[in-house]
Amino acid sequence: MEERRRERLSRLLTYILRHNPSSIGMELNESGFSSITVEELARRIAMMRSYEWVRPEHIMEVVRMDEKGRFEIEDGRIRATYGHSIEVKTGVPVRDVKVLYHGTTLRAWKRIKDQGIKPGRRRYVHLSSSVEDAVNVARRHGKDIVVLEVDAEAMIKDGYEIRMAGRGIYLVREVPPKYITGAYS
């Protein structure tokens, strides 16, 4: 499949699986997996204008080729691993993470200093295992970027649940200011 089509399908799957499964007549279970099979999902997408070309193998390719692990297939059903605006529980709780990172803008950092990191329109705050990934996230939001260092070990010790959701992606409900141990621009 050509890259342009793969990207379009990835964006559509992201929208459906993170934000609006009913747009294609399906539901998600509590773990975020689709109520229909990948084959049925492909059939429904192919009924949409300008997506007539979609087949199950195209969805499988999007999942396989995604570097961030945004999607997962289990028992023939698909889910987005993170980024939901609807309530689902994805990822696996972790206990052995010491430091994580959050990419943001200078403008947002001014608010975060007092209020901590909040999920905004999503259900969870996204943290990265590497500075590089956090920088890439921050660049999508503006030019004056800041990478925040988060003491994940202390958060876990204090009872916060941190879940690993994708390749190097971690989720937590919020990050109070006291766990932000560094800011680098």
Please write the string of helix (H) and strand (E) elements: HHHEEEEHEHEHEEE
Q: Number of helical runs?
A: 6
Overall average pLDDT: 94
Q: What sort of overall outline do the alpha carbons produce when their principal axes are compared?
A: elongated
Secondary-structure class: alpha+beta
Q: What is the straight-line distance between the termini?
A: 38 Å
| Strand neighbour order, sheet with most strands | 3-7-8-5
- DSSP, total strands: 9
Gyration radius over CA: 18 Å
What can be said about the biggest beta sheet?
A: 4 strands, antiparallel
Beta-strand proportion: 15-25%
| Fraction in helix | 25-40%
Q: Which regions are unreliable across 5 or more consecutive residues at pLDDT < 50?
A: none
